[in-house]
Amino acid sequence: MLLFCVIFALSALLTGLIRRYALANQVLDIPNQRSSHSVPTPRGGGLAIVLGFGAADLWLFATAQLGAERFAMLAAALPVAGIGFLDDHGGVAARWRFAIHLLAAAIAVGLMQGLPPLLIPAPFDAMFGLRVVDPGWLGYPLAILFLVWALNLFNFMDGIDGIAASEAIFVGLALAGYLLYLDSSLFALAANLAAASAGFLCWNWPKAKIFMGDVGSGFVGLVLGLLILLAAQQAAVLLYCGLILFGLFVVDASYTLAYRACSGQQWYAAHCSHTYQHAAKRYGHLPVLCACWAINLGWLLPCSAWAFLQPSHALVALAAAYLPLLYLAFRFQAGRNGFVAS
């Protein structure tokens, strides 16, 4: 608890200092036709999350509460923060960002030795038909794909005040709750990521005084993906729990990307057509952020607890969690520029 409070305070202090640096050096997010904000705002505040979480990792490693292998896995996320920092300061070609993302994910997965055992459908088995299967060599590319996708989810979804930091706090604390009696070092890592994100959120709550930027969003997305996979090594059902907790970002980003690709749009081009962006234009940032918290706490957390307590129901819980989110994406016509549901 003490470490949580220290990391929270450190992150909040660092965010304030980074904001001063960004203002002095004109590291600003300038509004354009795709923006969800209307005034130039400092960016790159996610560096405080990187530094705060990194400080916690060093402390855990130095006090033998975190093993060298896990420490190295988390360190693999630092190049992602580095390329994001450069991008926040002037732009980096997409191919170089993707190359660093892929390399970081591959290093982490190599140290992790692929995916943990998976709960997969087995229709002719009892108890809703799930069995534990070792994915073998196939687990390596699947795990890399998962981490790169988790990383980009945060990049895609970090578009209105407070949403990315709130998601990191929610998923981090929920994972910490599940890991409390399973793995003390993973519990500490998840809680400390939430603490660092909460310190940043003090400055990013609507109206935001600073944005997270790519330095933070990519790093946080990769670390959360890693934590979900590491948690699944302790209990296979936690992969489903993690996917459920992450549902708000997974469904919105996936639906939007799929719609844009299927409708012939340049799916890889910058846009502002996510569900949450359409909703923010209609209702404002704060009401949408509060709605996200309500969905997370009132729907996704109970669905993940259902899967955790009844692993044989994990697929049903995942479907139940995602279906209302898919409806919201359809209702707000995610993927269509310039349209908001009435």
Automatic annotation (TrEMBL):
<feature type="transmembrane region" description="Helical">
    <location>
        <begin position="68"/>
        <end position="86"/>
    </location>
</feature>
<feature type="transmembrane region" description="Helical">
    <location>
        <begin position="98"/>
        <end position="118"/>
    </location>
</feature>
<feature type="transmembrane region" description="Helical">
    <location>
        <begin position="163"/>
        <end position="180"/>
    </location>
</feature>
<feature type="transmembrane region" description="Helical">
    <location>
        <begin position="237"/>
        <end position="258"/>
    </location>
</feature>
<feature type="transmembrane region" description="Helical">
    <location>
        <begin position="286"/>
        <end position="308"/>
    </location>
</feature>
<keyword id="KW-0812">Transmembrane</keyword>
<dbReference type="Pfam" id="PF00953">
    <property type="entry name" value="Glycos_transf_4"/>
</dbReference>
<dbReference type="GO" id="GO:0016740">
    <property type="term" value="F:transferase activity"/>
</dbReference>
<feature type="transmembrane region" description="Helical">
    <location>
        <begin position="314"/>
        <end position="330"/>
    </location>
</feature>
<feature type="transmembrane region" description="Helical">
    <location>
        <begin position="210"/>
        <end position="231"/>
    </location>
</feature>
<feature type="transmembrane region" description="Helical">
    <location>
        <begin position="186"/>
        <end position="203"/>
    </location>
</feature>
<feature type="transmembrane region" description="Helical">
    <location>
        <begin position="138"/>
        <end position="156"/>
    </location>
</feature>
<keyword id="KW-0472">Membrane</keyword>
<protein>
    <submittedName>
        <fullName>Glycosyl transferase</fullName>
    </submittedName>
</protein>
<keyword id="KW-1003">Cell membrane</keyword>
<keyword id="KW-0808">Transferase</keyword>
<keyword id="KW-1133">Transmembrane helix</keyword>
<dbReference type="InterPro" id="IPR000715">
    <property type="entry name" value="Glycosyl_transferase_4"/>
</dbReference>
